[in-house]
Amino acid sequence: MSYVTDVPAAPAKIAIEHFSRRLSVETDCADVASALMTGNQDFVLLHVVGTVAAYERRHIPGAIHLPHREISAERMAEWPDGTLFIAYCAGPHCNGADQAALKLARLGRPVKIMIGGITGWADEELPFASGPDAGDLSRPA
Fold first, then answer.
1. 5, 72, 109, 133: most buried, per Cβ within 10 A?
2. CB within 8 A of 113, min separation 6: which ones?
3. In terms of Cα–Cα distance, which of 84, 62, 43 is closest to 138?
4. How far apart, in whole angstroms, are the C-alpha atoms of residue 45 and residue 63?
5. What does the buried/exposed string (b/e) look like for 46-59 if buried means 16 or more CB atoms within 10 Å of the residue's CB?
6. Among 113, 115, 141, 116, which Cα is nearest to 128's?
7. Which helix (H) or strand (E) is 100 found in, with range?
8. CB 36 within 8 A of CB 56
9. Are 50 and 66 in contact (CB under 8 A)?
10. Which residues pair with 45 in a beta bridge?
11. Which one, of 42, 56, 125, 55, lies nearest residue 88 by Cα?
12. What are phi and psi of 138, to 5 degrees?
């Protein structure tokens, strides 16, 4: 027996509940990129950490810079209720996306985090945007 099988796998019902719950609060870089590239963006993508200068240096095309510390009911009123927000941060070493997601959830807003953040996006060799504009991944540069 290996360390892998020391603890038996969960029964299917428990695994289904666990992974369904996890996917209800997370998405990944490839799925976000696919939606952006095909023009099927049915969410607002939020770059939730760093300075304006860092955002302008490199961000995911289509993302709005809104640091988690600036998320408030007043700011989020710009979007209709029911709008899905996808928050991302610097990467696995950063909890900014979690902080943003918690704030958004407390405001009653649907939210998921994009696991991997900027680090994951770079690992997937996906393109970045720069400058003050959000950019658009559906229109190649």
1. 109
2. 25, 26, 27, 86, 87, 88, 97, 98, 100, 101
3. 62
4. 5
5. bbbbbeeeebeeeb
6. 141
7. helix 96-106
8. no
9. no
10. 86
11. 55
12. -80, -15
For the chain, 141 residues long, give each residue's pLDDT as a single digit of tens.
899 999 999 999 999 999 999 999 999 999 999 999 999 999 999 999 999 999 999 999 999 999 999 999 999 999 999 999 999 999 999 999 999 999 999 999 999 999 999 999 999 999 999 999 999 988 655
| CA distance linking residue 65 with residue 49, whole number of Å | 8
pLDDT value at position 13? Answer: 98
Q: Give the amino acid at 6.
A: D
Q: Residue 89: which residues within 8 A CB-CB, separation 6 or more? A: 48, 49, 95, 96, 97, 100, 117, 118
Residue 138: what pLDDT? 80
